């Protein structure tokens, strides 16, 4: 479980069909075999640590649901260690289980912040609500508005600086994780025959 508060921008050192090696001094400082680290919102399990670089195995399911397989050495990634019982919940409850890949369709800069609009993949819009939480590339954000399959968020200067979202361009893909509570409510209602 994560909070969606990015701890540092890491850098991909090596990527293959089966694993990913990432340089992240903060998250690697106390990482151990079996720990979970969110990489652009994807929960990966640490299999080794050497200095400030951790390595994680990557499953076929992860490649199918995310763009982790398109990462190359030198790419920047958002990193967060798993939450503990003493972690402040500055964002919201994030599983690190990507629901799909959205696309950036518009960036509207303002004096002190920027509005970014995304297009959701089919089937996810029903889980996104105005003023609700959403995770984009592992970053906990608040939905400003949603219309059809498009929604926007506001990014403050800190988020633009401290995450990959400040560097992404129109057309770039991003990982989306919707609020898990909405998915559980839907399943319960379906089981009860309400929908």
From TrEMBL:
Residues 1-92, 93-189 form the Lumazine-binding domain. Pfam families: Lum_binding. The keyword NAD does not apply. It catalyses: 2 6,7-dimethyl-8-(1-D-ribityl)lumazine + H(+) = 5-amino-6-(D-ribitylamino)uracil + riboflavin. It comes from the Bacteria. Keywords: Repeat, Riboflavin biosynthesis, Transferase. Gene3D superfamilies: 2.40.30.20. Pathway: Cofactor biosynthesis; riboflavin biosynthesis; riboflavin from 2-hydroxy-3-oxobutyl phosphate and 5-amino-6-(D-ribitylamino)uracil: step 2/2. InterPro entries: ATP_synth_asu-like_sf, Lumazine-bd, Lumazine-bd_dom, Riboflavin_synthase-like_b-brl. Lumazine-binding repeats lie at residues 1-92, 93-189. One of its GO terms (molecular function) is riboflavin synthase activity. Its EC number is 2.5.1.9. Catalyzes the dismutation of two molecules of 6,7-dimethyl-8-ribityllumazine, resulting in the formation of riboflavin and 5-amino-6-(D-ribitylamino)uracil. This is Riboflavin synthase.
């Amino acid at each position: 479980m994560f909070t969606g508060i990015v701890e540092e921008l890491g850098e991909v050192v090596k990527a293959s069909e089966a694993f990913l090696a990432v340089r992240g001094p903060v998250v690697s400082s106390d990482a151990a075999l079996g720990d979970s680290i969110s990489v652009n919102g994807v929960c990966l399990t640490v299999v080794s640590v050497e200095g400030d670089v951790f390595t994680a195995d990557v499953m076929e399911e992860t490649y199918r649901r995310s763009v982790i397989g398109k990462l190359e050495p030198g790419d920047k990634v958002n990193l967060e260690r798993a939450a503990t019982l003493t972690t402040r919940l500055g964002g919201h409850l994030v599983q690190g289980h990507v629901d799909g890949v959205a696309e950036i369709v518009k960036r509207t800069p303002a004096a002190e912040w920027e509005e970014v609009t995304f297009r959701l993949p089919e089937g996810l819009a029903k889980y996104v609500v105005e003023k609700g939480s959403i995770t984009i590339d592992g970053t906990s954000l608040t939905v400003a508005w949603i219309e059809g399959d498009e929604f926007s968020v506001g990014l403050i200067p800190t988020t633009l600086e401290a995450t990959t979202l400040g560097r992404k361009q129109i057309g770039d893909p991003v990982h989306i994780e919707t609020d898990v509570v909405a998915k559980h409510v839907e399943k319960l209602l379906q089981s009860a025959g309400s929908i």
